[in-house]
Amino acid sequence: MKFLLRRSIFYVITAWAAVTINFIIPRLLPGDPVAAIIAKNQGKIPAEAAESLRILFGLDDSLSLWDQYVQYWKLLFQGDLGLSFTFFPTPVADVVAQGLPWTIGLVGISTIIAFTIGTLVGTAIGWRRGTWADSLLPITTFFSTVPYFWLGLIVVAIFSVNLGWFPSSGSYDRGLVPAFDWPFISSVIYYGTLPALTIVLSSISGWILGMRNMMVTVSSEDYVTVAHAKGLSARAVMFGYAARNAVLPQISSFALSLGFIVGGTLIMEMIFSYQGIGYTLYQAVSTHDYPLMQGCFLVITLSVLAANIIADFVYAVLDPRTRQEG
Amino acid sequence: MTVDANLVTEADELARQSQAPKTGFFSTPKRRAAGKPPRLLFLRSSKALWGIGILAFFTLIAIIGPWIAPYDPDAPSQALLQPPSWEHWVGTDHLGRDILSQLIVGTRYVLLVGFVAGIAATVLGIIVGVTSGYLGGAGDETLSALANIFLVIPQLPLIIIIAGQLPAAGGLTVALVIAVTGWAWGARVLRAQTLSLRRRDFVEAARANGERSHRIILFEILPNLTAIIASGFVGTVTFAVLSQITLAFIGVTPVSDWNWGTVLFWAQNNLALQRGAWWWFVPAGLCIALLGMALTLINFGIDEFVNPRLRSTSANARSLKRRRIVPRIGFTPVVRTAHPAAPRTRKEPTA
């Protein structure tokens, strides 16, 4: 389990780095916008909340940087990310906690769909290199170079404004009470179709291209030739020998491209006013709600780290080489 | 996405790619028989040519944009929200401003930020990647951990919180923020390749000759990394262009600087979709897609130049059929036109 141990240490360091970046940024940048906002809302912000905002944004100059840092960590362990100005007086942690499940659901489902379809299509295209299947590549390239948000705009224009098939914004029918029953779940699926479709469309080409290139490389390996020579069916060689080995880099690139996908999803939520964490970040940016911005960044980063850890476990299960000692 | 998929390659994979013959080009011309190596192989790929052509077009627009724009992009007129016509080729916005002029004037900003960020990130990536690959040991561990941390932290939210807290996030600031957050890809790939180059014979020979480290790095190792550096640079420019347009679109950067994202920002905030004003957001998006596609095509060209196995479209399905080559898995078709005595094409196994 040396592999997993090494990775765990790395993730601990990364989490620490993310928190530290979050600590440093407001202190490095010029100006004290938060101080101005606190001064403006004098009396409205409870003394305790104002105190934690001061610690989060380094407004207390009497303390040394190290003391500020220690206090900052203390606050984080209490789950205190300060007060949101936009949703005054809700704490940032609560605002973020409301948005997080929506984002995880949207990103999770659409990424799994894109990964599965993309890898299968990539396998097929890579296997049939030099045939008509190659002409699919430029089409997927087009979708990958279009920015997520523009694809989102076009999809909204076609499917909700012109055709009226799907709603253009929101994440469920506002007339419904959130509950774990069929009307609510079906409404969530109905509202989530367009955002998910856009994410799948724009992220699928990366999977196709990566898988195709790996298939091309792997298919000239000796073990594939041997499998052919043994007289195995083309299908068995393709899935059992070539694709099985070609998919490993896909999994490790999954972990690395997750941050990119999450970034795209945040933009998607802004377009569709989907009530996830990206939309929250958007509201925070447009209203200059700094505590909320910082909180969103921290939670997004930690979630991406968690997803990376899962991807590493999957990789360790799939690739026996990582489980070997030494 | 494409950028990622192209660059995600493990160390051994990279090592293998670089050993692939760089001169065994498809459909080798006859003059090669005269002993002269073909030049500008990279430009032989039609993908790369298309990419460079489109990029040159946008660069031209970026240089002469303000002079050829038909209107002042900020000047309101009486023609409010007009569809495309002869006076306004791509229509007007809610204040009667000419959208074509906004796009043309905005091109300079888009390319400038993209290239400044690309150059800065590539330089950072080379410094970190090559140093850590060449040094090895504790320095390598630290530097590559640093690069991996920046890879795992989602870049867009990081850029948003930095740019969002800056009082005035102008073009250069945005470019530098993008560079600071986006250098890690290049560093990782370069480190892997440097690791594999470090133990090659020619580097060992240089070391045995007593050459200094900086000379070995600059004159022995760096030239062999050119293709990877180039493709990393193009990838970073793509990323920078998309990021800055996204930032402008969500209104993090000042909306007074024209760029394609600013056009989309005004379109989104004035309900262009709901009003059916397609001319407001479709052309800007197509410009972005076209530029992104040009950069990706150039990257494909570089990839195919480095890894001959990926060169498929220089032999597209139809030309293969015409040459009576049946594509088979595990084989790279190589056409021997240098031997007129053998008209039948042969398939040569690589690897």
TrEMBL record, chain A:
Transmembrane segments: 9-25, 102-127, 148-168, 188-209, 254-277, 297-318
BP GO terms, sorted: transmembrane transport
Keywords: Membrane, Transmembrane, Transmembrane helix, Transport
Protein localization: Cell membrane; Membrane
Record PROSITE patterns: ABC_TM1 (PS50928)
UniProt superkingdom: Bacteria
GO cellular component, one term: plasma membrane
Gene3D superfamilies, alphabetized: MetI-like
Domain named ABC transmembrane type-1: residues: 100-311
SUPFAM superfamilies on file: MetI-like
Membrane-topology annotation of the record: Multi-pass membrane protein
Endpoints of the signal sequence: none
Record-stated family: Belongs to the binding-protein-dependent transport system permease family.
Protein's name according to its UniProt entry: ABC transporter permease subunit
Native source organism of the sequence: Agromyces seonyuensis
From TrEMBL, chain B:
Keywords: Cell membrane, Membrane, Transmembrane, Transmembrane helix, Transport
PROSITE patterns for the chain: ABC_TM1
Pfam families xrefs: BPD_transp_1, OppC_N
Any one GO CC term of the record: plasma membrane
Domain of life: Bacteria
InterPro entries, per the entry: BP-dependent_transpt_permease, MetI-like, MetI-like_sf, OppC_N
GO molecular function: dipeptide transmembrane transporter activity
Subcellular location(s) of the protein: Cell membrane
Domain ABC transmembrane type-1: 111-299
Membrane topology designation: Multi-pass membrane protein
CDD domains: TM_PBP2
TM stretches of this protein: 48-69, 109-131, 143-163, 169-190, 225-250, 278-302
Database matches in SUPFAM superfamilies: MetI-like (SSF161098)
KW tRNA processing (keyword) present: no
Stated family: Belongs to the binding-protein-dependent transport system permease family.
Protein name in UniProt: ABC transporter permease subunit
Organismal lineage: Bacteria, Bacillati, Actinomycetota, Actinomycetes, Micrococcales
